[in-house]
Please model this.
Amino acid sequence: MPHRTIHLFRKGLRLHDNPTLLAALECSEVVYPVYILDRKFMTSVMHIGTLRWHFLLQSLEDLQKNLYQLGSCLLVIQGEYESVLRDHIQKWNITQVTLDAEMEPFYKEMEANIRRLGEELGFEVLSLVGHSLYNTKRILDLNSGTPPLTYKRFLHILSLLGDPEVPVRNLTAEDFQKCRPPDLGLAECYRVPLPVDLKIPAESLSPWRGGETEGLQRLEQHLTDQVSLDFTWVMLVALGELRLVSSFYVWFCLDLEKLLSCRVLFQLWLSFPLPGLSSWQPSLLSWFNPNQQLNTTQPLT
Model:
């Protein structure tokens, strides 16, 4: 029997390479794309300043626009996470909640709470890996339950896992047409808030605009300029060293709001390799992310 599904956007504010949303559309009669703006939770587990608020709101606006073009909409609901879920699961007769698997401890705890709520209210929870080249649980399992502490050990574990999964196909309007969209009135009721609604100073705009569309455009431009993925790999031949120089914008896109898929980046890297680099160098995308690799209690912002 098809599900009535809430798809929770958390940090994966994108439509490309979104395996969880694709799975939700394939097994549901109606899908409610929801972002819960729990300001109390967000400010309690991370440092979030004015620039990041603007980046987040711009990313939500872009996601709303992209969903609208495919015949759906984004519902931004403000309030405490569990209370919002409890109320709307009952109001919309939800039978399934889908969300991307996260690695930060506070997001993992949130997922555990959602699963407990599912047992209480009788809905299923589907969680798939979409933010990393590999399932980090498998990496830990192959390393006796602990993170590999050297890059050499990390590469050994990856060699046991094999190649990363390829990105899933892009979503289309036909995917959303298979499901009944949310009522049009809900989009106005649960619109993306403006900075003034959250008392965020408008004059603190960042030179980096948020959103999947902006991230993909920058990626395309850098590929056109033959600078792969906004990462410049500098080979220090005389010293025999490799140094990674990454832009602040890509850090935002990859780590903070997950606007760009690392699996897409990996596949593009294979298409545009630089001389002298092994095929495993893109694994540094994971290795140099301290939140994912060392599982710290707070993300770096």
